[in-house]
Design a protein that fits this description.
This protein is mostly helical. It has a domain of about 130 residues: Tetratricopeptide repeat domain (Serine Threonine Protein Phosphatase 5, Tetratricopeptide repeat, Alpha Horseshoe). The chain has nine helices and no strands. The longest helix is centred in the first third of the chain and has 33 residues.
Amino acid sequence: MKILLTMLVLILISESLWAQDQNKDIETGNNYYRQRQYDKAESEYRKVVESFPGDKTAKFNLASALIKQNRTSDANKFLELLKLKENENDLRSKAVYNQGVILTQQKKLEESIEAYKEALRLNPGDQEARENLQKALLELKKKSPPKKQEEKKKQEQKQQPKPKISPRDAQQQLKLLEQKEKQVQERLQKNSRTGNAQPKDW
């Protein structure tokens, strides 16, 4: 019994020491992040993720450091893991929100709008998600005018009356056409009399 108790104490002590190292590395990474040294922050967070793959905070912070370095595809991998595997709505909401930010930067407005909506479903009180959703919606509206306006313009163009021709102008155009037809007939008769009809080259 004493041996078992001693082993349990050793395990708890070692876990406590690992947790201290883990927290120390995260805090060091946070300090680098605050100083905008994102590559160093990434390195510290990676240490924790490699040693403790289940550490959600380290994964989230690592994704944030990667976003700041414009390495969005790498960041998105970690955010996707948190989004799919995390049970805490707050952390899932933050992960989805960050995905929305990435999509906005990539000018994928429809997808970013969906991400912000999902973030709000997970955390209805997220004011930043609400503001970014509104900005993305406005940007999308500017990019593509509403379909109703486009359809209305097309209908107006179809309905515009074609210019009417006066009877006098119609008579003149008819005379011109008759003169041209007469000239063509005369040329054809002239060619048939002279026998100069040439075969066409095909």
